[in-house]
Structures are given as structure tokens and as C-alpha cells.
Amino acid sequence: MTQDRRLVIAIDGPAAAGKGTLARRIAENYGLAFLDTGALYRAVGLAMLRSGLDPDDPEAAARVARGLDLELLEDPELRTLKAGDAASRVARHAGVRAALLEFQRDFARNAPGGAVLDGRDIGTVVLPDADVKLFVTASAQVRAERRYRELKEQGRDVSFEDVLAMVKERDARDAARTEAPMKPAPDAHLLDTSEMDICAAFRAARRIIDAHLAGGTGGRG
Ligand code: DC
Q1: Which residue from 120, 136, 150, 166 has its CB within 8 A of the most atoms of ligand 1, so it is best to mutate?
Q2: For labelling alongside 62, which of 9, 48, 55, 95 has CA 20 to 30 A away?
Q3: Which helix (H) or strand (E) holds 20?
Q4: How far is the CA of 159 from the centre of ligand 1 (A)?
Q5: Distance of CA 195 to the CA centre of its chain
Q6: Which of ligand 1's atoms lies nearest the C-alpha of 84?
Q7: Burial of 204 (0-12, 13-18, 19+ CB in 10 A)
Q8: Rounded CA gap, 149 and 154, in Å?
Q9: Does 83 contact ligand 1 (Cβ within 6 A)?
Q10: How far is the CA of 214 from the centre of ligand 1 (A)?
Q11: What is the mean pLDDT of each run of 10 residues along the chain (221 residues)?
Q12: DSSP per residue over 31-71, as a string?
């Protein structure tokens, strides 16, 4: 289904909540462009690791973010636990967030029919005026199980305990940072997918978006 007017959708939530899959399906269904903003932070983290730089170093991280090679967004190593950990570290630095902000806003502004962006601060900082905001969560246990299965399917050698520890550590770091911490926007719809498969999550999201398109608020206010 494509739209007559532009539609901008912000999807936020913790690591491995299923927001990436959901965001892709929503983009496809409504004919919108899609940007996985976590990939930008992962690319900065990965570039730093490869150059032997420390992701905890704010100046070096900001420099890498300003000169980010967008080809890295296609790198298969982006999805590893190491790249995710480095991403969550570089994401704490104000200089990194500032360097990536305009790219994200331009993407949403320039996509002809509109766009879906997924991340941690899309509804609160990047696109506070988004038409529809979703905050997608699931329990840490469920998210760790999903991420563990995914990594195993990719043939990666990981233990469930490590994945669960990673999920909890990432939650804590992403939510506790001072710069654009992960949190639902006041007008976000909360979607807890602990008991939902992707089809059920998609149906729930579609009901919210369709209500907005039908002239309801789509948001909460
Ligand atoms: O969604 P992800 O797991 O690919 O994100 C990797 C890290 O990037 C995440 O731990 C925090 C950071 N991130 C962020 O701070 N802001 C965003 N909009 C997206 C990701």
C-alpha cells in the first residue's frame, strides 16, 4: 500500500526487540524508505576497532563519525556482538551523535513518500515531529533468546549467557547515558512483543499507523 501524503515513522526500543524486522516490514507495506540508524553507530564502532582506536575516546570517535565511510553500512561484520558493543560505546559521545544527526534528518526529509527510521532516540531527538512513534520492547530474556538464535543461524560461536549479559549491559548503557538516552517519547505507542511473533507485532503496528492515516491521531495526543 502506498500513501498519497508523506508519512514519517519513528521506531525506538532496546537491543534485539525486533524493531529492525518490524521497521522493514512497515516500510515495505507503506512504500517508505527505511534507515537502520543503529547501523550508523555500528559503522563508527567498527571503523574504530579496525583502526585500533578506543570507542571510549570521545574525540577520536567524533572524528571517525564525521568522516564515516557509508560503504561500511554493508559490511557483514556490522552485525557482530563486538560491533554492537563498540556502537553502544561510541553512541554515548555528543560529538558522534551530532555528526550523525543531520544525515538521519536528511534521510527522512528527502525520501519521496516518507520514511521509517529505527533506533533509540528517533522519536525523542532525531524526528520529534514524526507522524507515528512506536517504542518496541520485549523482556531481556526473550530478546536474548531471539538474538542468540539469529547469531547461531549466522554460524557464530556464542553462548546464551554471553548474549543475555550483552543485552542487559547494552540496555543499561543506552538508557543511562546523558546524551539522547533510550526512552519512549511521551507520544509514543508502546508495543511489548514478548508474547508476539513478528506477524502479530506487525498487525499491532499496522493498526496504530492505519488509525493515524484514517485521521485519528496515530500519536497519543
Ligand atoms: O539497534 P542496534 O543494536 O544496531 O544499535 C547499536 C547501538 O547503537 C545501540 O546499542 C545504541 C546505539 N544507537 C543509538 O545510540 N541511537 C540510535 N538511534 C541507534 C543506535
Answers
A1: 120
A2: 9
A3: helix 19-30
A4: 22
A5: 21
A6: 6
A7: middle
A8: 9
A9: no
A10: 32
A11: 78 93 97 97 98 98 96 93 94 97 96 96 98 97 94 90 94 91 95 94 97 72 38
A12: T-EEEEHHHHHHHHHHHHHHTT--TT-HHHHHHHHHT--GG
Looking at the CA of residue 173, tell me the nearest atom of ligand 1: 10
To test the ligand 1 pocket, which listed residue (9, 12, 40, 41) has its Cβ within 8 A of the most ligand atoms?
41
Distance 169 CA to ligand 1 centre (A): 13
- pLDDT score recorded for residue 156: 86
Q: Which class is 7-208 in CATH?
A: alpha beta
For the chain, first and last CA: distance in Å? 26
pLDDT given for residue 1 in this prediction: 52
Question: What pLDDT does 106 receive?
Answer: 96
Model confidence, pTM: 0.92
Reading phi first (left if > 0) and then psi (alpha if -120 to 50, else beta), residue 171 is in alpha
> Which cell numbers in the block locate residue 10?
519513528
Q: Kindly report the CA angle at 81 between 98 and 14, in degrees rounded to 5?
A: 60
Cα distance between residue 180 and residue 104, in whole Å: 14
pLDDT of the residue at 165? 95
190 Cα–ligand 1 center, Å: 18
pLDDT of residue 80: 87
